[in-house]
């Protein structure tokens, strides 16, 4: 087990990529702190933090559930402290919590853009900062979940793409600044992955989301969309890769190449 007894804190852990990362890390021996905005079942989406925690425990690993709205610094700080208080350490932080933001460039509104950056960028910056004292002790890693929206332009998605580009820049500067502390950083850039991101944001129905995934499958060099488990493989690698830092790792089926199978 390559992550035996390490402690991994994951935001947005109830479903999708976050849940997949939790299970992948647990299979490699890690204990998991699962954080999410709600612990109750979503009226339209499957999966809860509690259900993921039970799956982790079934693998013989320990898991705790933390209800946190990452937009509020006091809750973020409490999440870090509760994780370290419970497990006694922190080895990896996975900044996965995010929302999809779409708005035409000729219709930007200030409140919408501020919410996008509060949720997708500033929360991750503050959480990472608060985790540094604990990660320095373990010589751990900070991982951000970016997007290939920074590699291919999708009209209407500029607010989302811009927040993900900010995380890529943050990854590099943070790597340079935290290298002397032996803390590594990385950013995973997934291609199209079948998650509930757009559904949770209320942008599409389940049928519309499926149609969109089917439509973009051919934009990937490998001719299909990915899975959360495949993205989690990249995250797990960055957690344990001791001489890799500041990288943006494309786990995207080749969509960032600009090739297509059309």
Describe the structure.
By secondary structure, the chain is of the alpha/beta class. Helices cover 44% and strands 14% of the residues. It has one domain (7-250): Rossmann fold. The protein is built from eight helices and seven strands; from the N terminus they run βαβαβαβαβαβαααβ. The protein is globular, with a radius of gyration of 17 Å. The mean pLDDT is 92.
Break the fold down into its secondary structure elements and pairings.
Elements: E1 7-11, H1 16-27, E2 31-36, H2 49-58, E3 63-67, H3 73-87, E4 92-95, H4 110-138, E5 141-145, H5 158-178, E6 184-190, H6 197-200, H7 206-216, H8 228-240, E7 247-251
Helix pairs in contact: 1-2, 1-8, 3-4, 4-5
Task: Give a quick summary of the entry.
The chain has 262 residues and is α/β, with parallel strands linked by helices. The chain is built from 8 helices and 7 strands, in the order βαβαβαβαβαβαααβ.
Helix coverage percent: 40-55%
Strands, total number: 7
Determine the CATH topology: Rossmann fold
Helix/strand structural class: alpha/beta
Q: What does the largest sheet look like?
A: 7 strands, parallel
How many domains comprise the coordinates? 1
| CATH-derived architecture | 3-Layer(aba) Sandwich
What is the alpha-carbon Rg in Å? 17 Å
Name the poorly predicted regions: none
Proportion of beta-strand residues: 5-15%
Q: For this structure, what is the CATH class?
A: Alpha Beta
What gross morphology would you assign? globular
Mean pLDDT: 92
How far apart, in Å, are the first and last alpha carbons? Answer: 41 Å
Q: Major sheet: order of its strands?
A: 3-2-1-4-5-6-7
Going by CATH, what is the homologous superfamily?
NAD(P)-binding Rossmann-like Domain
Number of helices: 8
The succession of helices and strands, N to C, reads EHEHEHEHEHEHHHE
């Amino acid at each position: 087990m390559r992550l035996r007894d390490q402690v991994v804190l994951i935001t947005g852990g109830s479903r999708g990529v976050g849940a997949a990362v939790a299970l992948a890390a647990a299979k490699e021996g890690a204990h998991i702190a699962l954080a999410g905005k709600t612990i109750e079942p979503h009226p339209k989406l499957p999966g809860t933090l509690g259900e993921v925690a039970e799956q982790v425990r079934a693998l013989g690993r320990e898991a705790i559930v933390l209800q946190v709205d990452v937009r509020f610094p006091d809750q973020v700080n409490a999440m870090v402290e509760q994780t370290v208080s419970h497990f006694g350490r922190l080895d990896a932080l996975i900044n996965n919590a995010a929302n999809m933001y779409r708005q035409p460039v000729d219709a930007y509104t200030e409140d919408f853009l501020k919410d996008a950056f509060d949720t997708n960028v500033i929360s991750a910056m503050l959480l990472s900062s608060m985790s540094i004292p604990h990660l320095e002790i373990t010589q751990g890693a900070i991982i951000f979940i970016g997007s290939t929206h920074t590699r291919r332009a999708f009209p209407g998605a500029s607010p989302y793409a811009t927040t993900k580009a900010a995380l890529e820049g943050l990854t590099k500067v943070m790597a340079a600044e935290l290298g002397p502390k032996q803390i590594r950083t990385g950013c995973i850039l997934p291609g199209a992955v079948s998650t509930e991101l757009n559904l949770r944001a209320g942008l599409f129905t389940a049928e519309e989301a499926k149609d969109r995934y089917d439509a973009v499958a051919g934009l990937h060099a490998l001719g299909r969309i990915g899975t959360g488990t495949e993205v989690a493989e990249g995250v797990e690698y960055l957690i344990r890769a001791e001489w890799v830092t500041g990288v943006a790792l494309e786990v995207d089926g080749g969509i960032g190449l600009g090739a297509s199978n059309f």
